[in-house]
Amino acid sequence: KPPLSSNNDSRRISSQVGESFFRSVLGQMESVYLNRNPTPKSVLELVRSVDGNEQLCYDHLAFRTFGIGGYGIDSLASFFLDYGYTPMDELRFPAKKLRALWFAPPNDGSDVPCGSGVNGPLPRVFISELLVEQMSSQAQDVIRKYTEASPGGKKYAAMSSALGSLPWEKPLSTEFEQLASESEYAAWTLVNGYALNHVTISVHRLKSHLNKIKKLNQFLEEKGFKLNSEGGVLKVSPDGGLQQSSTVADSISFKFSDGVVKSIPCSYIEFAERLVLPLYQNVPENEIQESHRRDGFEVGNADKIFESTYQDQLSRRTG
Ligand code: OOG
Ligand code: NI
User: Fold this and answer.
1) By C-alpha distance, which of 151, 191, 154, 189 is closest to 171?
2) Ligand 1 in contact with 197 (CB < 6 A)?
């Protein structure tokens, strides 16, 4: 059972946060992301123009957190729970010392919105956290130093993400390096905080031939985009129903508190195709709804996708 006090019967009511406010916060998180990351921005423009469809849907949004002192999954989840999201399954990554929880969007019973991106059908949300207690004492000291010195940061997780401001002070470059040597996820989170880690294009909801993920991957590679190759470019769940791929993260220049300027990994963009479940194989194509498709996430896929921000993938040569 996820340790979250959620209003579990609230899938149909968005009680505490209004929809237009909620969507505009998502829109701000998205602008921070698009302004910092040229690759996701150009991929979205390219896919929109080639697909020729006014609607491009997001499958999910993903965030990273430090699982300590109230800074973990719950700190950001509360904003989504207040808008009627429901906690779904937990995923565990023991080797990476991570856990994650995904959240299903509210279903208010009204028609599916026909807008694009954050104005379209609401995306799932994937939030992970570093199991800080399992890190070395030196790494824990760095993480505690920044989180404990900003006790209010956790209350304003969504605000921090929407503003694109770190919820704690900038670290020393040596502290970043130290975390990176133990966990690239930890180092990423120290310098990116609650910034959107990625948005995911819902591939099966595109209208052109790009609505097959293999075609989309091929198209993007031909255009020169570097895709995460960890365990193979295409990540397929054991049941075959969830197929994912992602670009390698962009890098951004970051000025540390000791004055050192370094290039650090920022965000990436992901692609997900969800196949129609065996149970609905006979439903006519024009009647297929998102609910007829493979839902949720897959630990084996996610484990590889995390590495989209890892140095090994960033420094790989294209092709
Ligand atoms: C999340 C990686 C996992 C998915 O869809 O399974 C993921 C991350 O990089 O923080 O996005
Ligand atoms: Ni993802």
Assistant:
1) 191
2) yes
